Amino acid sequence: MTHNTNDRDKWALLIGINKYAKLAARYQLNGCVNDVELMAGILQDNFGFPADHITLLKDEEATRDNILANMDELVDRVAEDDIVVIHYSGHGSQMRDREGDEADGFDETIVPHDSGRTPHPNRDITDDEIYARLLRLTETTPYVTLIFDCCHSGTISRDPFGANSRWVEPDLRPAEELPPSPVSLEVAQAASRDLGSSGWLPLGERYVLIAGCRDEESSYEHGVRQDGSTVMQGALTYFLSQELVKAEPGATYRDVFERTSAQVTAAHSRQHPQMEGARDRELFGVRDIEPMRFVPIRQRAGSNVTLGAGAAHGMTVGSQWAIYPQAIKQVTEETPRLGLVEITDVRAVTSDAKILEEVEAGAVAEGSRAVEEAHFHGEMRLVVDIQAPAGYEDAVAELKGLVEASELLRQAEDGEAADVRAYVIAPRTEVSESDPVPQLKGVAEAIWAVVGQDGRLMMPTHRVDEAGVASTLRDNLEKAVRYRQALALRNPNDDSLLRGKVEFILKRQASDGTWVKAEPEDESGQIVFEEGERIAAEIVNHHTGPIYVSVLDFGLTGAIGLVHPVPGASEQLASGNSIEIGVREGDEIELYMPRNFPYVPDPEDKAPPGGTETFKLFAATHEADFSLLVQPGYRDIGLRTGKGAGTPLGQLLDMALTGHGTRDVQRNRVPPDEEWTTVERSFFLRRKML
Question: How far apart are CA 258 and CA 409, in angstroms?
Answer without folding.
Answer: 29
